[in-house]
Specification:
Number of helices: 0
Radius of gyration: 15 Å
Distance between the termini: 36 Å
Strand order of the largest sheet: 1-2-3-6-7-8-10
Structural class: mainly beta
Oligomer: single chain
Strand content: over 45%
Order of helices and strands: EEEEEEEEEEE
Number of strands: 11
Largest sheet: 7 strands, mixed, barrel
Shape: globular
Length: about 130
């Protein structure tokens, strides 16, 4: 897959640190591309889990991926404010099939309220295992 252009629709595949498929998002529209970053948006997009379960996102989201940095950011635009995910993940990569990244061990969610205070919540430690 070549670097998508603004206005293109892409599929995003997220992989676990062990290389297994985690989740796929369909129909994310590219808003902005640079040499190293891609910003996209989706709304009520189909998500497919690795076990085949499917669901649709409830709100619009803006996604940011970088080719060199080990994180990505998703801003979910909700009626009561904006929630930000900051996933520790590999830099993105492209192949013939999709736009891809690999999640690392911990995911964080920051819910930023439209008022003064903000709170942090640990969202998932499912990928952490003892060796």
């Amino acid at each position: 897959m070549k670097l998508p252009k603004e206005g293109d629709f892409i599929t995003i595949q997220s992989y676990k640190h062990d290389g297994s498929l985690h989740r796929t998002w369909r129909d994310t529209m590219v808003l902005k591309t640079t040499e190293n970053a891609i910003i996209g948006v989706n709304d009520h997009t189909l998500v497919t889990e690795s076990d085949g379960r499917r669901w649709v996102t409830r709100e619009p989201a803006i996604v940011y991926f970088h080719k060199k940095y080990w994180f990505n950011i998703i801003a979910m635009i909700r009626e009561n404010g904006i929630s930000y995910y900051c996933n520790m993940a590999s830099p993105y990569y492209l192949d013939e099939e999709a736009f891809k990244n690999t999640l690392t061990m911990i995911w964080m969610l920051k819910f930023l309220q439209m008022v003064r205070n903000a709170s942090w919540t640990l969202r998932s430690m499912n990928d952490i295992s003892e060796k």
